[in-house]
Amino acid sequence: MDFESGTGKEWLVANGLGGYSSSTVIGCNTRKYHGLLVAALEPPVKRRILLSKLEEEVEVEGKTYLLSTNEYLGAVHPKGHNMLTSFELDPLPTSTFVLGEVSISKRIFPIHGRNAVVISYRISNLNKQEIIFRVRPLITSRGIHEIARPYTPESVFEKDSFIAKTGESYLGVGCSPGSWLSSDLPEDGKWYRNFKYRRELERGYPGVEDLYCPGKFTVESRKSFDVNILAAGGKRDEAETFNLFYKKGRKYYGSLYEGEKARINRLQKRFQRNTGLRQPEFDLLTIAADSFIVDRDKPRGKSIIAGYHWFTDFGRDTFIALPGLTLVTGRFDDTREILLTFSKQIKGGLVPNNFSEDGAAYFNGVDASLWFIYAVQKYLEYTGDPVFVEKILPGMLDVVHGFIRGNGLAKVGDDGLISVHKTRKALTWMDVNVGGTQATPRYGKVVEINALWYNALRFLEAVAGESTGFEDIASKAKDSFEIFWNDGRNCLYDFVAEGERNDFIRPNQIFALSLPYSPIEGKDAKAILSVVRSELLTPYGLRSLEKGSPSYRGTYEGGSDSRDIAYHQGTVWSWLLGPFVTAYVKANKGSKKSKREAEAFLKPIFSHLSDAGLGSISEIFDAEAPHRARGCISQAWSVGELLRAYCEDITGIKRPLLTL
Fold first, then answer.
1. What distances in angstroms separate CA 548 from CA 45, 376, 485, 536, 569, one per listed residue?
2. Distance CA 283, CA 18 (A)
3. Beta strands 20-24 and 84-89: pairing type?
4. What are the beta bridge partners of residue 11?
5. Which of 257, 279, 409, 413 is the most buried if burial means most Cβ atoms within 10 Å?
6. 298 and 312 in contact (C-beta within 8 Å)?
7. CA distance 379 to 375
8. CA dihedral in degrees (589, 590, 592, 598; nearest 10)?
């Protein structure tokens, strides 16, 4: 397999705790985030790289083949990718190497719900040649955002396996079958130095790391045989769990794999029965959707990881992604748990936008609270479950009353519209700050905030009754929404504040059309869609800013500041295809023609499933062709909105019959 194309495609399998296994298809780590065992010490956060990779070699009748591929400073060595004949998600990462008359199949699968991973090898030796198979674990112990330089584990307990302790984390690794030998290399040979992580260097971060090798496992045979490496880690009790079963035989490891495969199959079959969609791309998206749903320790509950590799869970992203990830897929129990996780933390009328690693809630987004109400609205639409909505209603009412009285971030004015406070920190989804100030200043009456506000008022009026008094505020807000109309450009201003009417064409206006209750309809909605389609639509999403703006950036590259500035200044966001498609079909009254056209808008993104992060949808793309994928290789709202829009707006499926 070609080195350049092989390092350009990545895979990731999550474990339901925030941890994961991930690398490129040729096994060459190109990011500091890559690793075979990435454990969440406090799910889904405090993630640490524990087992970076395995160095494999096969000796056949005295001739040695090196299966690994690494990029070091100034060299690629070894070049195992030249013997790699195939890689596939089957549904878990499976690689096949051919060494003359010997073939080796390698399969990687995290154990769902545990900080553990199994790497299984099947060595086919039909001619009964003498084979010696050696595996050297390369380990570290660092946070996922860090880079390790030489260190010595505090202790390595060695028998026929090992447990290593560094700081607050442990790693246990065993091999079945196999004999363990502490490193037979010179003392300084235990270090593999100067691994190069090209993606980190491209992003302007440190990208050179050393990894520690405590020894090697060896298996000898003249027959075909299986080898299973089990790694478990995190806290000590987690690291020691591998002792319970690493020596168990082939059938046991086969059952672990079949169990995980069966779990995935159940998810896919349920989605197929609920939606009637049986194309392979939806099987992949079902697995991707599952990868984001995680357990949370502090506060206890469930949540949604915003994106891999580096994001944790955010309120805004969670509520936008939730309909596609959990409702379309029939995971109603998970939906309720996720909504309860956040609703229990409501304070001062605000829903948390994210949590610290110690579980403290941060209230730093105006729209997260309004997206929360939208998520409950979608839950009711899919389930018809008023009992749960009644349970969570006080939290939603608290949100609305918080905006009416002022919640510290925004306040409702006499015209019924929300005004976002002008601060140094960004408070909407265009939330990047550079040098302590907003990279994309947006304040005052912001278009999507008020579209969400109007939708929330109408929904709560419907479920809580006229006694709320929200009908009058909603009517005022709808009448006042005309302040956003930009007569000169036949679309909506992005925000209106202090005499300024910001007429940059941005995608935020699309929410005034796409939400269940819309303040804009009819010919005005079609006019807006025409402008957005002309100025912002690309094959992979909507640009965040029109090309004619002086602030426009066509590529997302360079160091952190350069990328942050470009983040919302033209960069394409794939998740925005969802509301665009919804708005398009809605404005055209659900006609067959509009659904065919909407499907055509989504078609190119399906081809992306075999690019960048295999089986998933990237966070962002360059604004200019060829629209290179950037940011996270797998993003929750990108996957969620594709699933939601396709199922709701194209196939018309809104209420699955089966739940998980």
1. 41, 38, 20, 11, 11
2. 21
3. unpaired
4. 23
5. 409
6. no
7. 6
8. 110
